[in-house]
Amino acid sequence: MTSMIQELTVSHNPFDMTPTMNYSNTTDSSFTNNSSTITNNQSYDGVDDFLLPWWQQTVFFLALIAILIIASGGNLIVIWIVLAHKRMRTVTNYFLVNLAIADFLISVLNMPFTFLFLLYQNWWFGTFFCKFSCFISPCTISVSVLTFMAIAIDRYMAILYPLRPRIPRRHVIAAIAVIWIISIALSLPNLIFFTTVEQSGVTLCTYTWSLDKDLAYNYLLLILNYIFPLLTLTITYSRVGIELWGSQAIGEETSVQHDRVKSKRKVVKMMIVVVIIFAVCWLPMHLYFLLSNHHPAVTKLDYIQQIYIVFFLMAMSNSMYNPIIYCWMNSRFREGFIRVFCWCPCRPCKKFRSKLRFRRTLFPTSVNAMSEKYSERNGSLMHTMTEYVDPDVNGPRRVSNNRNIVRKSDDYL
């Protein structure tokens, strides 16, 4: 009689972060699937054989809790800083709010449930949440990468074509709505084809369409949500970097122009760091996806379950890094975080002049100084307004020649 070997299969789909785990009875060990196969050197007697040692579970749980607290709390603070302070409501910051919403949703609605499924190999949360959790992961990832591209395009237009008018805020809101519509449409197959099934005494969250269709869909997500966006962002920011760091101003550069270019550089640096962190965090998951499809033997390593959980937590940790980057590289976000944590006894608040609130700035009173003309970096535009640029990145304030009115620019954060 042919021996029946029961194998545990764990999906390596890098975007359906709720992995497809199937218990199947096969007549031999050559089980071909788009899922990674976790095998055991000993005979398989039940799900308990795949449970990790208690100390490994403890380490993974501590990592999960840290990521969840920082990601959810940090992104909520970012949303509050932008929406609660009028001075922070700029084009770029609206996109950052959209990015924070996507990071918050994936960290709260997908990460803890997928982690428990990976650890205990049993879906406890019902059919609806199986569908929704598998849907929310590729949806929020699509929102993130499309938001990255929208910010890059906005920076590209603002820096390379400074004479063109900026995007109206109503158009920014419309662009964010389009981003979500595209992301939802791209993720709908998971909402339709994922369901729960009972096998070998456990509940599984798995797909119901064919293996070929699932693999093709995963490759489509890999291209649209990782490879193509990173190539586009690399080209865009390379062009912006050449303009900001490689070109020279025509004629003598004024201190105002120097400060303005310095401010733009800080914004671009921050966004480049955000994109690089995203690429690094998701790279192991994508490499595992490609490697396991072309070399199935990789899925039979002794510690593949631990490796997969590490890759999963690394990918999910991307949602907690953005608030840290904003706080580190932008003084206004940093001030907002300080305000939130003023209640902490170990961090008493100090009185400081707020940069988040609207305030007036002292300017030269000389009529000649106020009306001094200077050329833009391309030498083609002459201004009759003097600009004061905040050295902390947050934009020039313009004062007209006949009124002491301060206006902020959406060119900066």
Task: Provide a concise account of the structure shown.
Helix content is 57%, strand content 9%. The protein has 413 residues and is mostly helical.
Helix content: 55-70%
| Overall CATH class | Mainly Alpha
Summed up, the helix count is: 11
Binned strand content: 5-15%
CATH architecture level-2 label: Up-down Bundle
Low-confidence stretches: 1-12, 17-46, 358-412
Number of domains: 1
* The CATH homologous superfamily: Rhodopsin 7-helix transmembrane proteins
Strand ordering within the main sheet: 2-1-3
Per DSSP E runs of 2 or more residues, the count of β-strands stands at 8
Mean pLDDT: 75
The CATH topology corresponds to Rhopdopsin 7-helix transmembrane proteins
Structural class of the helices, strands and pairings? mainly alpha
User: End-to-end distance, in Å?
Assistant: 70 Å
Radius of gyration: 26 Å
Shape: globular
Biggest sheet statistics: 3 strands, antiparallel
Helix and strand run: EEEHHHHHEEHHHHHHEEE
What would you say this structure looks like, in words?
By secondary structure, the protein is mainly α. The chain contains 11 helices and 8 strands. It has helices at 54-83, 91-109, 111-120, 126-160, 169-193, 211-246, 255-294, 304-316, 318-329, 331-340, 367-370; strands spanning 5-11, 21-26, 35-38, 194-199, 202-207, 386-389, 396-399, 407-408. Strands 2-1-3 form a 3-stranded antiparallel sheet, with no helix packed on it. Helix 1 crosses helix 9, helix 4 packs parallel to helix 6 and helix 7 (255-294) packs antiparallel against helix 8. The radius of gyration is 26 Å and the shape is globular. Residues 1-12, 17-46 and 358-412 have low confidence and may be disordered.
